[in-house]
Amino acid sequence: MVVNWTELLKNEIETVYGTTARLLDKVDADSLGWRPASGSNWMTVGQLIKHITNACGAGCKGFVSGDWGLPEGQKLEDLSPEEHLPPAEKLPTVESVDEAMHLLAEDKAVALQMIDKAGEDDLASKEMAAPWAPGKLMPLGPHLFQMIQHLDRHKSQLFYYLKLQGKSVNTADLWGSW
Q1: Residues forming a β-bridge with 129
Q2: Which residues does 61 contact at the CB level (< 8 Å), separation at least 6?
Q3: 2-14 pLDDT, tens per residue?
Q4: Does residue 48 lie within any of the structural domains?
Q5: With a threshold of 0.90, does the pTM exceed it?
């Protein structure tokens, strides 16, 4: 079976971003500072949704164009572990749910643009390694799919944050309506 990466990635993007936006609609403006009460290194709701708004498109842009959003002359491979994965208290936050919705739409546009820019041939056959896994070569399409999965996993985290806050959410909210 031959995979049409363009079609697969665009379909996944439509589903994951749509479901994520519907979950963002359930976030109360006054809950942006909320985080789970037990455990450690939890993001606040505001930090989580800020991360959600660049969890996919920004990574797709990095893989396709080499632009990882770093200052001139800095490489992702050169970041220290704490710079690459900072503790929750150092992560940025959004100021509002409206800001998050706007940023999410921008990130989706970037992801779709990068799929078109790459083209089907490169998605299927251009091999590269992620900067955080330099020895693991794989085609560009699976890398972009992993960026969509990154967003999807954090969308699931938001789902559980909403459940822990007592919001009425169910499986259809997590996976999209059937």
Answers
A1: 137
A2: 67, 68, 69, 110, 114
A3: 789 999 999 999 9
A4: yes
A5: yes
